[in-house]
Amino acid sequence: MESALGRGRGIGGADARKGLSKAMSLYQVQKLIQTVNRDQDSRERFLESRKDLAEEFELTEAEHAAVVGLKIHTLYEMGVHPLLLRPFTIIHGVSEPDYLKAIREGD
Amino acid sequence: MPLVFACSVSHTPGIRAWADAPEPGQKDRLYAGFEALRERMEAANPDSILIISSEHFANFFLDCMPAFTMGQADSYFGPVEPWVKIEQGFNAGDPELSERLLNACYEAGIELNYAHEMKLDHGTMIPLSFLDPARKLPVVPLIINAMTYPMPRQRRCYELGQALGNALDKETRRVAVVAAGGLSHAPGERIHGNIDSEFDEEFIRRLVANDVDAFTSYTDEEIEQLGLGTHEIRAWVAVAGIAEGRQAKPLFYEPITAWATGCGLLYYE
After folding, report:
1. What is the value of ipTM here, to two decimals?
2. Which residue of A has its CA nearest to B224?
3. Which of A5, A12, A82 sits opposite B187 (nearest CB)?
């Protein structure tokens, strides 16, 4: 069984505890995801144009690509909290088997 | 005496949202356990319910993540998730009780956060849908950050419970206390579906044995191996502190694979 500790669980992981800069960067990704999950207007805007909403957050190039491309595996590996990531993927119509396949095997 | 009832229960959303997903009998046994708790609570004739659950990004986010937050509202909307199949509505609050409990905790050196606005999610509403389905009793929600690091240590959760227990000793209200969360589960993780019955049953054994050092000794790293959702046992630890001196009586435990959660029920007498 793989430990969540081993893969930099961002807000919730060993890497975040060690490296503030990673956590700070990850924060913006998670903030975007929380905004989409919780705010209906933002959600509609995101569904219309992921890129437009993503521009409003301070994302690195890799984070921007992962969010705009809905790269579930990449976002998981970055350390996005599963309680943010799973609802975010549900909004985009991703079934549980597909979600689990993505985080386990890759996008 | 004003602590008139205490129990600890799982709150996984599947209990209502996917009620018929488990194998035959499993749901019935859990529901029967909840009904037994409801009857016990009703017989204790409480005035209010203090319910301790965990954060799931319903009220708080990383812009500000409080360790412990007590609701002080006149009423609470919930559940925020329509898909848990509990009718959305309002539960009355008990701001007077909240204020007294908060002051007692501050006096004891535990500075809880407090919130005059708070929404209830499945974490509180699943248990309340069984224990007080008609929403007759006012509630005081207390939310623990059991989700993002750093989170309060198990020992601190127990100490919070002790402070609340001491406050309840002087309380005029007859208060029922409910812990909601756990046991082992890993929602949305790569190890989703992982249930560690051995851990869950050992945790319950430690509570029943009232081995405080043992049930407050789990480290974040140990728990994380079992799934991040397992951190929610903090609510059970806090209620063990509230019910200090009373005997924990296990009522139900089964790993329910359809809900990807080790589900337990326990009360104190």
Report:
1. 0.92
2. A4
3. A82
